[in-house]
Amino acid sequence: MKTLDSIPTHKMERVGKLVTTGLRVGSNYLKFYGKNVLQGEPDREALDEANAKDIYDGLKTLRGSALKVAQMLSMEKNLLPKAYVEQFGLAQFSVPPLSGPLVTRLIRKYLGSSPEVLFDTFTTQSINAASIGQVHRATKNGKKLAVKIQYPGVANSIGSDLAIVKPIAERMFNLRGKATAKYFKEVEERLLEETDYTIELENSRFFASQCAHISNLIFPKYYPEWSNQKILTMDWMVGEHLSEYCSKNDNSQKVNDKLGQTLWDFYMFQMHQLKKVQADPHPGNFLVSEHHQLVAIDFGCVKIIPEDFYVPYFELSKPQNIADDLKFESLLYTLEILKQEDNSKEKEFFTSLFKEMMLLFTKPFHQETFDFGNDAFWEAITNLTKTLSENPQLRKMDGSRGSEHFIYINRTFLGLYHLLHDLKAVVKTNSYVTLF
Question: How far apart, in whole angstroms, are the C-alpha atoms of residue 173 and residue 123?
Fold first, then answer.
């Protein structure tokens, strides 16, 4: 794979790259409509594949928040065409790495010495490269280590990247008014935290200690002496990424259920006991060991759940509250889904919409066990998502609804559901039912 000697960090450089990408996409559309005129039946899938590839090729040279957006979108399997999901999914752990000389310069800059001085061995070619940083293999005093190096300029480009993305996002999600600022602020704060590896080091050690009792779950050990804001060093963990494991056809259902139960227990403990959660549950953040243990290896994106959001959020999932119109409406106001200035039509529309959504998405919590491989459940989610994306009435209404805390908490649950679906896991979901 081709390596990179530099990454665009200035706003104009990054805007220029996005403009070039836009021109390529425009060219793809011209070819598509040209074939429509000449052949009558152009290949829409081919257009999606060409656009997805060109967009991803542009984003992967930018890295940082631009590529992080692609990574987040790759989890939206019900919203995006398959070609986009597959291309953007590469952002999880497989993008062109930084060159060896650049890696060596970064190690010297951030740790004060060359890698061959600091470690007994150090592989300048990265093993995994993702949106914020890339991982190298090293050894020290007989320990096998993973050294994660952050791409240069990532933190400084977040503000300018979001400024570019903001008008696009506002149009896509029909966001209006000053209220939208809180959503972009929430995203910017989480992204900035992800670019500070001292925060990730603290979070990683916290979760490893607090969740050590969870069956079948293991964590690497972390090394502060070889870590700082731009470098994070931990044990090298042996295993295959969860996506690679799920892609095999000969997995045991018993093992899949065990891994699924581990994921469920891990996230429910974070949600309900710690009130602090790893909010980026994608396959690149988990390994499956040779003994079929789940290995959690990334705590860059962590969301603290405020009590004044936690209580109404989970109250909203109780069947008795969904059935109680007055209680349900009250919770919608508390969570900022309904607004005092809503007219009767808006109030009726959003109340009905969220009741339908809650009845579907909380199904796993209302049973002793739940089959996340159930085709009917996923077909219902797909149909509801498609209906919402195509609803002309919704497109005319202000989409600036809900607390900013919804962004990462909903992302966490949807990501968890997708992982469990990939495993086709049957999970005992009533483990924390008393906490609801």
Answer: 44
